[in-house]
Each structure stands twice: as C-alpha cells, then as structure tokens.
Amino acid sequence: MKLTALLLTLHILGAVIWVGGMFAAYVCLRPAAGSLDGPQRLALWRGFFAKFFPWVWVAVLLLLVTGYWMMFATFGGFKGAPLYINLMQTLGLLMVALFVGLFHGPWLKFKRAVDAQDYATAGVQLNRIRQIIMINMPLGLLVVAIGGSGRFWG
Question: If you ran DSSP here, which 8-state letter would residue 153 be given?
Fold first, then answer.
C-alpha cells in the first residue's frame, strides 16, 4: 500500500507539472507576452520552453513508469484495468506522442531560428508549438478529470 501511495503521488505530480505548465503557458503567459515586440516575445518563449521542456520529459517518464507499474501491481495488467484507466492510458500516450513530435520538430527549429535571429521562421514554429499545445492541454485536462473521477463511474 505504501508503494502504491508513493507511485500515485509521483503520478499526480507528473500530471500537475505537465498539464499545469501547459495551462500557465497557454492561458496566462501567451496573452501577457502579446504586448512584447516580436524579438522580445520570441526570446521569452525560447527561455520559457528551455526551462519547461526538461520538466515535461521528467513528467512523461514519471507518468509512464508509475502508471504502468500501478496498472500491473493494482489491476494485474491491461485486462484487469477498468475503463477509466484505459482511457487515461490511451489519451496519455497520444499526449506523449504529440509532445515528442513537438519537441523534435517545431521546438528544435524554433530554438535554432531564435538563436540565429531568424524571427520569421521562429514565428512560424512558435505557431506550430501553440497549435500542438492547444490540442495537448485540453487532452491533459480531460485525462486529469478522468483520473480524478473514473473510480466513481460505477
């Protein structure tokens, strides 16, 4: 029981870090950064993502390790897992795939463009990052809602 409590705590913290960071970026930082001129805004986002994305990698690792550990320890594997666990798993894997694509595509291009002061390219890549976060953030909020309420579905 103590191990499950620890794993669940780490799992929840991973979700809070990732989903909360996306929420803060999209809902709070994005509108606030809109008043900055282009190069300043792009530099702000470059700095933010450079600090946030390593935490997302930690969160992804925590979520995958703790989630699958609990699935096998608590439910005896995939077959024994209830619907809400499988929904969380499916949506979570989709979120991971979107993040990996964001990181290795638009983020790396964005970072290189800002460093080279190629602001036109950086703007295009930042818009791609925004679009992916616009998909991933609601998915993350849905996963959190499912995880918090799923055991009470009946």
Answer: -
Collapsed DSSP state (helix, strand, coil) of residue 34: coil
Cα(108)–Cα(23) distance, rounded to whole angstroms? 21
For tokens 């390219």, name the residue: 121
Among 135, 114, 137, 136, smallest CA distance to 124 is for 114
Sequence spans of domains, the chain: 2-152
Cα–Cα distance, 122 to 64 (Å, whole number): 31
Sign, Cα dihedral of 127, 16, 103, 42:
positive
pTM of the model: 0.95
Tens of pLDDT, residue by residue over 71-129, are 999 999 999 999 999 999 999 999 999 999 999 999 999 999 999 999 999 999 999 99
- Helix, strand, coil share (%) of the chain residues, nearest 5: 90, 0, 10
* Number of C-beta neighbours around residue 45 at 10 A: 24
Contact 119, 39 (CB under 8 A): yes
What is the DSSP code (8-state) at residue 117?
Answer: T
Computed on alpha carbons and rounded to an integer, the radius of gyration of the chain in Å comes to 17
